[in-house]
Amino acid sequence: MFQDIYINVVGGIKLHSRESDLAVIMSILSSYYQKILPKRIIYLGEVGLTGDLLPVKNITPRVRELDLLKFKEIIFSYGPYKNLESQDLQLTMIKKIHEIKNFFIQ
Length: 106
Description:
By secondary structure, the chain is an alpha/beta fold.
């Protein structure tokens, strides 16, 4: 079964990195499964053509900032991250895009 997908960004967004891929995919899956995404969760990762999630650049300062902004969880790709920790923010790492489907089947 194939379906067409159209993404429209009103006013346009200038992206300075490719880590928004995972967020776009999550919005598509949210519509497909007709489930609302939980609030205060960030989806961050570049998705390769084979479905691999590529490591997020400069993740440590991003995690610190998301922690300060009181987000609950960040879902992002595995990578060779150093000193990556958070007091209140749950850090969930995935390797392949198909793993994200588990968040909708619960």
